[in-house]
Design a protein that fits this description.
Elements lengths: L4 E5 L3 H12 L3 E6 L16 E2 L1 H5 L4 H7 L2 H8 L8 E4 L5 H9 L5 E4 H7 L9 E5 L3 E2 L2 H14 L4 E3 L12 E3 L13 E11 L9 E3 L6 E7 L2 E5 L13 H14 L7 E12 L6 E5 L2 E5 L5 H19 L3 H4 L3
Parallel strand pairs: 1-2, 1-9, 2-8, 4-11, 9-16
Antiparallel strand pairs: 3-7, 4-6, 5-6, 10-13, 10-14, 11-12, 12-13, 15-16
The structure holds flavin-adenine dinucleotide (FAD).
Length: about 325
């Protein structure tokens, strides 16, 4: 039995996506998670959940859009809560030129005027003269998405063993390490990039899709989570300090929401959170073999966007390198 199964270590978005992909391809899998519950201590718990390959294209490597675009279909297939209503980018009048520069660096968008914006998001009518609409982009609630993947695994009889770090496999080739930043001992070029976010609640405004507000220092966005909840994210700081959200970051994030719509001024603050994104020097995810163990890591700020690609890479690798593959398949 021990030789016929793969252990995935870590139940963040990387580990769960790998387990879903491997089980879909017929591998017997189990998942080992150090925390006692899903999301506890996982960077994935703090994510915004934007599946925005073309918005990201404006500020990151072209690989992010190329590898991330197919993930929207993956999430629609694997998590029914995935919402594909596009996303919007706007800028305050003083930063209107930034909108043009943003548009020049990407694709798959439409320019919309103030009326177009109001048609898409009635509560934003009259607030901005123009914006960019990316109709093919999607978003999800990361916490519900992790729970959805866990439910899929349960339905496939893939166990998630909480509260342990023991993968039980004697053969390192049977282990897929998805520990995020905790794997740094084996991946010395992995670093943490601090991100901070806020969740607020208000019934005074509703949005159907994520909205980015161009800002000189922080790529700010607001993601609707339903039932009056909004996630406002996210700072990106080259620091590995694990501490609570700073006052400066909180003010920047709250100002962004207020600039988008003054109704956010009356919103209740539900949560302030911070974590460290696991990132390699090129800020792209990679699959690497270290002492026989396969590591899938480096999702940086694209955890939900690039986890399906990373999981596909892991599954392809295990399928093709493996002489004993038929034995490892479920009956
Ligand atoms: C504020 C913020 C906003 C973000 N917004 C977005 C966004 O909008 N879209 C997006 O795609 N990405 C976003 N990200 C990035 C995303 O959250 C990360 O890329 C992603 O969560 C990394 O996932 P992971 O599975 O590699 O790591 P993690 O989520 O950290 O998972 C690692 C898991 O391994 C477990 N573990 C550690 N050590 C052990 C061990 N020895 N044994 C067993 N288990 C172990 C941990 O407990 C944890 O559950 C954001 C991040 C932050 C901080």
């Amino acid at each position: 039995m021990d030789r016929s199964a793969i252990s995935v270590i870590g139940a963040g978005v990387a580990g769960l996506s790998c387990a879903v992909e491997l089980s879909a391809r017929g591998f017997a899998v189990d998942v080992v998670e150090r925390a006692s519950a899903l999301g506890e201590g996982a960077c994935s718990w703090m994510a915004g959940g934007m599946l925005a390959p073309w918005c990201e294209r404006a500020t990151t490597d072209e690989a992010v859009a190329r590898l991330g675009a197919p993930s929207i279909t993956w999430w629609l297939r694997n998590f029914p809560g995935t919402v594909q209503k596009g996303s919007l980018v706007v800028a305050p009048p003083r930063d209107a030129a930034d909108l043009t520069r943003f548009a020049q660096r990407t694709e798959r968008f439409e320019w919309i005027d103030g009326d177009g914006l109001g048609n898409l998001e009635p509560d934003l009518a009259g607030r901005f003269r123009r914006g960019l609409f990316f109709p093919d982009e999607a978003h999800l609630d990361p916490r519900k998405a992790l729970a959805g993947l866990a439910a899929t695994l349960a339905a496939r009889n893939v166990p998630i063993r909480f509260g342990t770090t023991d993968a039980r496999r004697r053969d390192p080739k049977l282990v897929v390490d998805c520990r995020g930043l905790a794997a740094r001992g084996h991946l010395p070029d992995l670093r943490g990039v601090r991100g901070e976010m806020i969740v607020v609640h208000t019934r005074d405004i509703s949005l159907s899709r994520p909205v980015r507000l161009l800002h000189p220092r922080i790529p700010l966005y607001i993601v609707p989570r339903g039932e009056g909840l909004f996630m406002i994210g996210a700072t990106m700081i080259e620091s590995e300090e694990r501490r609570a959200v700073s006052l400066r970051s909180a003010v920047e994030l709250m100002n962004a929401a207020y600039t988008l719509h003054p109704a956010f001024g009356e919103a209740e603050i539900v949560e302030l959170g911070a974590d460290l994104r696991p990132a390699f020097p090129d800020n792209l995810p990679h699959v690497r073999q270290v002492d026989g163990v396969l590591h899938a890591n480096g999702l940086f700020r694209h955890g939900f966007l690039l986890a399906p690609w990373l999981a596909g890479q892991v599954a392809d690798f295990l399928e093709t390198r493996d002489e004993d593959l038929p034995e490892r398949r479920r009956a």
